[in-house]
Task: structure prediction
Amino acid sequence: MSQNIDALARANVRALTPYQSARRLGGNGDVWLNANEFPLPVPFELSQQTLNRYPECQPKRVIERYAAYAGLTPEQVLVSRGADEGIELLMRAFCEPGEDAILFCPPTYGMYSVSAETIGIEYRTVPARDNWQLNLPAIAAQLDGVKVVYLCSPNNPTGNLINPDDIRTLLNMTAGKALLVADEAYIEFCPQATLAGWLKDYPHLVILRTLSKAFALAGLRCGFTLANKPVIDLLMKVIAPYPLATPVADVAGQALSEEGIVLMREHVRELNANRAWLLEQLPQLAVVQQVFPSETNYILARFSDSPKVFKTLWDQGIILRDQNKNPGLEGCLRISIGTRTECERLIAALQALSVEQA
Ligand SMILES: *Cc1c(COP(=O)(O)O)cnc(C)c1O
Result:
């Protein structure tokens, strides 16, 4: 019965390190500040009782409501199983394995490389500058053979927006050669910064959105790709026939109703207020070396002994996201903004550590 099943697998899959999602990393917490989720559940009721039927591939109500919300037309919107599926669909539609490459600028979101490795597409990295803005000359020197450039703005895990003038320069640089994908997973926390209004000028611009963060629906698995029709038409060729389960489309439609959007904006105001409070508190603590500004529902901070801080809080059930191994982020932890009570528990725990250190 001994068979080496591993030897049957594709070499790149054998070599693959899967995405270290917060859920996979586990932990036994009651204060979850490690996945940039909204801290409280939002109640929904299912209204569709048609599970005997296959769902619509692109549910009309969801597409129309998202288009209205984003200020676009329905033909500029594709809905998928989270923004993560959008990241991968773009590679599958535009990159020839073994020939074409993608490019991104670390430190940034981890799924661009994981998807590329899974499909067998080369990925090139051009590290961001010290201020986490784009290194445009270095990108220009690496663009040969690149079909898709992924930018994350505001960037996960650093929290900053990418300078729009630089994005425009990069759009001009990539015109006719590559897609430029702006991952706007956190745009609801700084809506004025969206590039959605630029789609009319740039046929190769693509924007990724999600219901997982500000809309408080990470468990729903629903995301959006915004682009002009020729791009959407190509993605429609490679998407699964039924990417969204009927209950997912049902809830997404409700979340995108007028009341749903009002509720999301209230939640954003609450979290932004909690973020302002944390940005005031964190720099006063002896264990905190540096706090980075944030346009999002998380804060990146550098600590004098981050492994100790991470472990001590973990043991108290406060789970943060370790960024220590991420190039350029030595000593950094990422903290999702929770409820005010959760923020207060975090600060109290860090205060105790600071007293100990002093
Ligand atoms: C959370 C996140 C996503 C994934 O969104 P899903 O819709 O949950 O798949 C994509 N990009 C970034 C930058 C994220 O932080």
Notes: The pocket of pyridoxal-5'-phosphate is lined by residues 36, 82-84, 109, 152, 156, 183, 185, 210, 212, 218, 223 (CB under 6 Å).
